[in-house]
């Protein structure tokens, strides 16, 4: 039986990784959170003096790219891959507000995107992959057999992120999160290289009023319908 490529794109914090990870687990595919890779480059940049305030030292980052090694390893406790930067688990560190506030400018840089896209395409060479991000259906895997574009209102997305942080016992400010969500959407949609766009052949999912369970079922149905049309897919 053959495996396919599944691309899940959309706005920040709308539930892409939640649904992508669940589908991948259910159908036995690899799951890759491409946003984690841009976050890892950002964390490296913060830690290595590549930022001066909000200004990025482009030449320094260009030279440093060869020293940034990103990998994923399955965390048996969470059932999802943790992100490793130069062999150190940085899953928690890449999710801070500091990284969230600096990641979109880093993601506008053509040489960063070029390197990330090459690595993502290598990971998906054998298919059997569910990858979520911003440009997966448009740039990374334009021939993906199933493409989904997810959206929800900024307020709902910020609320979900706020609830998640509170549930973990972490400090959170709803207004800061909302501002960050809107800022990232703006930068991601308007950058010159691979801006956030719905691929023409992507299915649109507005999950504003859906539960996690409902969106999971919806995605599984879309996978089933692709598989029903081609009985060689599993
Ligand atoms: N339909 C839903 N209803 C309520 N909460 C949801 C729903 N989908 C996802 N969530 C919650 O919203 C938060 C953000 O989800 P998730 O991390 O999957 O988003 P994302 O799109 O991958 O975000 P990012 O762009 O930051 O990678 C999580 O706490 C998740 O549990
Ligand atoms: N394919 C992608 C994925 C992500 N980005 C950028 O990274 C930021 C963080 O991503 P999350 O999925 O963790 O929210 C995101 O805001 C984008 O700037 C990207 O450019 N391309």
Secondary-structure blueprint:
Blueprint lengths: L4 E6 L5 H12 L2 E4 H14 L3 E2 L2 E2 L1 H7 L5 E6 L4 E6 L2 E2 L7 H11 L2 H14 L5 E5 L2 H5 L5 E6 L2 H14 L6 H17 L12 E4 L5 H18 L5
Parallel strand pairs: 1-8, 1-9, 2-8, 9-10
Antiparallel strand pairs: 3-4, 5-6, 6-7
Helix pairs in contact: 1-9, 2-4, 2-5, 4-8, 7-8
The structure holds adenosine-5'-triphosphate and the ligand Nc1ccn([C@@H]2O[C@H](COP(=O)(O)O)[C@@H](O)[C@H]2O)c(=O)n1.
Structure characterization notes:
The structure is a single chain. The chain is α/β, with parallel strands linked by helices. Helix content is 48%, strand content 18%. The chain has one domain (5-219): P-loop containing nucleotide triphosphate hydrolases (Rossmann fold). It contains 9 helices and 10 strands. The strands form 3 sheets. The protein has a 5-stranded parallel β-sheet. It has a 3-stranded antiparallel β-sheet with strand order 5-6-7, covered by helices on one side. Strands 3-4 form a two-stranded antiparallel ribbon. It is globular and about 55 Å long. The model has no long low-confidence stretch (mean pLDDT 96). The site of adenosine-5'-triphosphate (ATP) has 17 residues, from helix 1, helix 7 and helix 9.
């Amino acid at each position: 039986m053959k495996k396919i490529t599944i691309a899940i794109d959309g706005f920040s914090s709308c539930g892409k990784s939640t649904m992508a990870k669940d589908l991948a687990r259910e159908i036995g595919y690899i799951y890759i959170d491409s946003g984690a890779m841009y976050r890892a480059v950002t964390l490296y940049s913060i830690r290595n003096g590549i930022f001066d305030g909000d200004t990025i030292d482009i030449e320094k980052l260009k030279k440093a790219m060869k020293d940034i090694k990103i990998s994923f390893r399955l965390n048996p406790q969470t059932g999802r891959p943790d992100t490793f930067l130069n062999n150190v688990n940085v899953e928690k560190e890449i999710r801070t507000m500091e990284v969230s506030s600096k990641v979109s400018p880093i993601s506008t840089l053509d040489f960063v995107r070029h390197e990330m896209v090459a690595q993502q395409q290598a990971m998906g060479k054998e298919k059997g992959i569910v990858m979520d991000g911003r440009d997966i259906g448009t740039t990374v895997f334009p021939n993906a057999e199933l493409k989904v574009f997810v959206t929800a209102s900024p307020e709902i997305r910020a609320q979900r992120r706020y609830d998640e942080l509170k549930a973990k016992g972490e400090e959170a400010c709803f207004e800061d999160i909302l501002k960050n969500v809107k800022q990232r959407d703006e930068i991601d949609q308007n950058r010159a290289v691979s801006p956030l766009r719905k691929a023409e052949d992507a299915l649109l999912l507005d999950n504003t009023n859906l539960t996690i369970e409902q969106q999971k079922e919806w995605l599984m149905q879309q996978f089933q319908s692709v598989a029903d049309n081609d009985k060689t897919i599993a």
